[in-house]
User: Fold these one by one.
Assistant:
Number 1:
Amino acid sequence: MTKKLCGTNYPTSICFIVVNEFCERFSYYGMKAVLTLYFLTYLHWDKDLSTAVYHAFSSLCYFTPILGALIADSWLGKFKTIVYLSIVYVIGHVVKSVGAIPTVGNPDVHIALSMVGLILIAFGTGGIKPCVAAFGGDQFDEENVSERQKFFSIFYMSINAGSLLSTVITPILRGDVQCFGGDCYALAFGVPAALMVVALVVFIAGSSLYKRNPPQGNILLEVCNCIGFAIKNRWQRRRYEPQRKHWLDWAEEKYSKRLIQEIKMVLRVLVLYIPLPMFWALFDQQGSRWTLQATRMNMAFGDSFTIKPDQMQMLNALMILLFVPIFDLIIYPLVGLCRINITPLRKMAAGMVFAALAFGAATLVEVNVVKTVVDPAPAGNCLLQVFNLAGGDVSLQIPGSNPFPEPIKYLQDPPKYEMLPLKAPSKMLKIEVTLNGATSECQHIFNQQNSYSLIVFSETTGVQCKLVGDYIKKNEDGNPLLRFLNTLPEAINLTVGDVTFHVPSGDMSPNKTVERREYAEVSCSLESKECSNVNLGLLDFGGSYTVILMEEFGKVGARKMEDVKANNVHIAWQIPQYVLITTGEVMFSITGLEFSYSQAPANMKSVLQAGWLLTVAFGNVIVLIVAEGAGLEQWKEFLLFAGLLLGVFIIFSIMAYFYTYVDPDELDKIYAGDAGKEEDDHDDTKKKTKDIQLNKTGKSTRL
């Protein structure tokens, strides 16, 4: 007898299943939240490769549920499948965490461990995906239908609660905890690994309470065999037999008419699924392209609170928890009062429109975000800016071009990089610098597609020039970059937050990532004398700064130059696109699951579930192809996705218009009647045969 929770009809075993699902979803979404930034900042991949691998992993996670369903239904049963694949899942997390430890091997080892870990995680999470919810439903007796429905609501809430908490916590573990001299990805992956261990232990702890149904054979496999037989039989016999009404009718020699009719119903729904991957191609970019967009935005809310770019994904889970009851209790009833027939397919079509609008909003944000981005120089050109430390205004002349027609003021922050034509991969250029009527020359080699700062300063011999290479890309984790130019007669050491700089005299330090904040007092030290604290002011998100150290009134002075402008679009501008995409998800995803369930015969619901998950997989494949193949600017790529989804919306709407809703339960009545009719026909045939036989023997004349 199944043990019940005190005073209810709920089995005690579902507590273990719900907690297991919460921990598993925490581990999955927590790991996935920081994955794109891990590729960028730890493995040092570019944005397109990072996006492609992210979506390849997501796609694999939604292909493997078919494998999990086959194993559970045909071989091990749901309980053993969940346990064994959870072990694979845990191993994947551990391997992934070890790959994030810098002291373990070289970069190639880190990549290998990361890829092996992700593959194991994909097989683990995908394999148990079709089993856990169904296993929870198995715990209820047939008479407890309402309790089972409430369980699935609780189950869905546990998924979103795990997702919400993990997308808040793991970015904090990544960015606020420093280990091995940088962001602590090992911890950010290790905590989800620990939660997956907890999920496995909790699930096994309830093993004595579970109601376990033995494997019943996989209906998905039977469907595939039936379709395969129909195609084969039609091909072999098409020449000497008349055509049948439907190509699946060619399977009648081996399979029952009921099974064939059920497959026809399922195929009609699967045809409707063909356009659906495009929605998921947009939806799943929250963890890739939208996170990358967030790294180039201002993430400060006041002086005391900042959000991390990978934390913005938690808005989706949070708003799902808010929007589902709002839509069910308020919006849908209000629309119904307006006498608008809101069918499931119309809801799904509207969800596509909202997702397309979300990418329209993302396009507008991106157009403004890129205004602070410095575009690299094309082939045959380079970029140049000038810092004037010469004590007065200077004029520059470069043969063959005139990028600086106006005098450059002393200690002026360069307004922008200027294009310097080279017309060759590399070229030596003579630069004439005029200060107070006196002209000096300096020569430097410039390489195409590079960016440079020309430092102009005075010495007793005249005006001198120093050429340094610049890093114009915005920092991939959103934090500012900082470097120092030391014009002092001796080396200097500085400590900016947790980062130290040693800058020899007359030299430039390399760019280093520092935390975004106000630096009113930066400690410094010189070999020969005391060094008072240096005021750097605010080092803001996305900015790249050069600080010139010089002697002023007997003290060390600092002049801050902004090479790459700080992010000036606030991250709050991403909220509208998250609101729109979540609205689309509520109307599309939840409705789609309900539609699939209602339109499938009882024993075919797992087949349609597999088909639904495959639409998510193929959606990620679309992003993978576009990210690696299109080569578009980001705002143009967002606009392309929005346009494609609107086109798919039109196609889907036409298909939905011609779709006829069915009640799968009617099949039972139809085939019950057919079975009775077949039995009556069978009895009549037997009676006629007997009469004929009697007639032949002369004992009866009735035909």
Number 2:
Amino acid sequence: MSFNESKEQYAVDVESDKATLTSSSNKFTAFLSKTKGDLTNYDDTDSVLSAKINLINDAIDEIGFTPYHWKLFFLNGMGYSVDSQLTYIQSCVAQFVRYQYKQHYPADSHAIYAGLLVGALFWGFGADLMGRKIAFNSSLILSAIFAILCGTMGNYGTYCLFVALSAAASGGNLVLDTTVFLEFLPSSKQWLVTFMAAWWSFGIVLAYLSTWLFFSFDKFHCSSMADCPSDSNRGWRYIWFVNGGFVLIVAILRLTIIKLEETPKFLISSGRDEEAVEVLQRIAAKYNRTCSLTIEDIKECGETTYNREYAQNPTVKGSFKMMGKHIKTLFANKTIAKSTTLLFVSWTLLGISYPMYSNFLPQLLQSRGANTAAPTVAGSYRDSLISATASTGGPILAGLALYLCPSLGRRGVMAIGALMTMAFFFGYTAVKTRPQNVALSSCVFVCINIYYSCLYAYSPEIMPSSARATGNAMAVACTRVMACIVPTIAYYANTSSAVPVWICGACVGVIGLCSIFMPFEPSRQRIA
């Protein structure tokens, strides 16, 4: 499509969208009506940039899906799994680390989530300023080094410090891996971003599997805080070494197997038009695909001013100015502001519900006399491994639903996943036996991962390309902030009350409703 054709289509789509959103006198019809056309139509901060992004989308669709995309799927996915893997490693070994250092307060839980929060914001904001490539190539190596060092620490303070550093290094993967993969995908394959969330579950499986294997042997863990010499409690150290080593292997593979190109949409946003066209033509030439986009087509659109000045002369003051501009872009008009607000609310409530559920429910069941726990440490981790393995079905089911029944859309699948999770949350309070515990926890894992996987994909999909990493980082940060607070609530609150569990279920129900009211549906629209 030439620039003139693209511009004419752009104008038609905008007028159609305005008519859809404003002409209906029936409020219910207006509520059900879906925005149409490319999502760039709704980003009015820079019309030249929007026109260029439309041309980039045309070129990506023309090139189609290539082996380069498969490499991104696997290597980005493996990095995606690191975020969950290291988070669950900290959770799995926490009891034995506290035995080792005679600690009662869960400072390491605060450390992991504080690190993830800082990492999401640092790498996310940085990716919109410096590019996706730098963070993609460096975050995993740093995370691996810090994770291995966690297993060498000789006191609780330094252990918490390196847990936080490892989390900060890996915390951007949740933001960047979806962003990078999405910005190279043809529009017909965007559902793969939802499917990629199966890697998140894979990280949890690795965490529980390694923990189960080591803690199956009594010589690797203590049984109480009163009697816990270091030489009888080395399992948690070995677990950090093994998982840190796995992350290091993934980091090396990302540097050697794939030569990551900077995403064309970031290059366009930064005024680097020639480089954007060269990247697309290089990918097309390598895989014998057609790419008719030329620099003349891009230049015909005019000059974008969005990020150009900063890209040519980056300064500290300019960095903060650009960050403010990126945040402003997320609320550029009523439609985008509504989308961003509902998204942030969803991530916030998710950050309250699931960690609180994990902290309160076991104590609640125990206080009511339910015999849900395994009699041995190894048995407990085996049960968790079963539930974690079942959770991989959530993203797979979500991806298949989007592929086989596209009329559901991202919002429909999210609503279904959230409401099913709410039902199982409430039903879980009636659990009395260990088999029931494993079965219900598996169901909760599957259903919440149906929702999670769509939300992870939906968040970067509906963000403007110029502020995609920033918006994605802020969304993830909403969950991280809540997750930092929950351990304190669980430590001081009355765990015999069912109120927190009902609050968790209500929060999940609300985020299901939020998904219905979100204005954009990426399954019917190309991303910005």
Number 3:
Amino acid sequence: MSHESTAAPAPMFSLTLTGIGKTYVDPVLSDVSISISAGQILALTGENGAGKSTLSKIVCGLEQATTGHMLLDGQAYQPASRSAAEHLGIRMVMQELNLIPTLSIAENLYLNQLPQRFGWIDRPRLAQAARAQMAAVGLTDIDPWTPVGELGVGHQQMVEIARNLIGSCRLLVLDEPTAMLTDREVELLFTQIARLQAEGVAIIYISHRLEELKRVADRIAVLRDGLLVCDNAIGGYSSDALVQLMVGRAAEAEIDLGHRNFGAPLLRVRGIGRGDVVRPTSFDLRAGEILGVAGLIGSGRTELLRLIFGADRADHGEIFIGDQTQPTVIHSPKAAIAAGIAMITEDRKGQGLLLTQSIGLNTTLAKLPAVSRFGVLDEPAESAVADDYIERLRIRSRNSTQIVGELSGGNQQKVVIARWLYRDCPIMLFDEPTRGIDIGAKFDIYKLLAELARQGKGLVIVSSDLRELMLICDRIAVMSAGSLVDTFERGQWSQEAILAAAFSGYVNNKQEQTS
């Protein structure tokens, strides 16, 4: 068994798609023709629902095209499954992760090729191979026997990338690979991409982050409403021009937060913590305020929100709602919701949605009595609510009865947001609210967040995108190694100062360990 990161590809590689179309109930792809060869990096972009993920799934054997054909090295190519495509060196890191949470990192990496000795799994060999593969993507400080379910989504993303770099890889499809990564992890990924390109691996890089596409790609392909509207050298396009191609209109350069008067604190957190994951943390959230939380992956950002929301049990600390003099006991999400706290989770697939249910049900789930009569669901009322949010959030769908699992990732995220907007809680916790959402729709979300703040709600927003936080927040708190290390007011921050704070906790910990 070989544990090399990536075997050298065959000298010749070319993949040609001709007239590819895909129809479910309605067409989602129409007459797409495109090609890629060894060592090329093709950027693939477009709005949510434009057909990017569907096209890549056809290439990687997860979907079958309705029309058209493909050629691999000049021969007919129609993989019947993902494993069939992988056997030919075509691999995909999907936006929705394909990991088993109850198994360790090592077991997830080598699940189909576990080393054995005398009929038993050779754990020392497996651990050695896993550590080498994890080091390739910067996961050197994590025990390979850690269950994947205990990792944050960002670290899970790096494990998924590492898994797909094992063995022969001739074409690697990366679907929104940096959506949950911070700058340090992004740089590690780009190092791997440069190495793969030098070895002749072809790469399809799907992202809404135009600055990333221009940095890594040779060519840009843009899909809009299932049609290929651009396939050209990327150097000839400005970001504004690409946005025009993607959405048919220019994106705004900034957001008008409007005039707001901050009110009294809606939420007072005092000394809340859980082991070393979140050390004692205190802050206030005022009415009408947007408070950002920055930090590296693993810094405790998500874990802090989960403690406040009651998804994890705090070891110590208190939470006060409004002007209450007695702390509110929050030992479950149900208690948090009753106290007026909502949370938009970073893991929409695992924690945020009922994927087999309709948009309507998912939208009204947190406030079902409002669309029920005598304990029976009022379907017309449910549809009316969902239709309103479909229009407001520009959710690409057939109608409110469509199953959420059929939507693109970004549109699924909008459904999660719609649910909590409908619940109308005064305190709203957002964990990566624009993950997987295209650049045009991001500004729709930003405007919505600003409107919520103008209504007097208090918003806490965790994001891996510093520019996003600097664009929409009134204050930015920085987590590092489990501690809230600094808070910056609007007008007083800089990207360099926030990043320095984000690394400070780890530097201090290392100095303490060596002293």
